[in-house]
């Protein structure tokens, strides 16, 4: 599994950047969210690994959100710095090469580019029910 994670991270590092979208599911202002990997796990029936590349323009962010109840998420910052808060934990800035996890049922209240002048990218790798198509749900206020 580590080899798959590393391969997905390397592949996404070389993906071309494009215009940042405001209307991408799971996105926000200056956020582009792209499914870059989707593979059923042969040794865990009913589960898949899905890689999601999140690209933030300078000052970009994602709205507060949750993920499917079946999802375990491992996120690693590929470029720049990401400000993040999971549940009621501290707001933390992660730099390129640093990682964090989200457990099933966690709330991701803060996810944004920590810089107003440089872009940032992160790769979120989900282990989730194969039948789950939507990966991000807005937090209802």
Descriptive account of the structure:
- By secondary structure, this protein is mainly β.
- Helix content is 9%, strand content 46%.
- The protein contains one helix and eleven strands, in the order H-E-E-E-E-E-E-E-E-E-E-E.
- The strands form two sheets. Strands 3, 4, 6, 7, 9 and 11 form a six-stranded antiparallel sheet that branches. A five-stranded antiparallel sheet has the order 1-2-10-5-8, covered by helices on one side.
- The longest helix has 12 residues.
- The termini are far apart.
- The relative contact order is 0.26.
- The N terminus is likely disordered.
In short:
The chain is mainly beta. It has one helix spanning 2-13, and strands at 31-40, 47-56, 61-62, 65-66, 72-79, 81-86, 92-95, 99-102, 107-113, 120-129, 137-138.
Number of helices: 1
Quaternary assembly:
single chain
What share of residues are in beta strands?
over 45%
Q: What would the principal axes of the Cα set say about the shape?
A: globular
The overall pLDDT, averaged over residues, is: 83
- What's the order of the H and E elements? HEEEEEEEEEEE
- Can you count the beta strands? 11
Q: Decide which structural class fits the backbone.
A: mainly beta
Question: What integer value in Å does the Rg equal?
Answer: 14 Å
Low-confidence stretches: 1-26
Distance between the termini: 37 Å
The helix content is: under 10%
Largest sheet: 6 strands, antiparallel
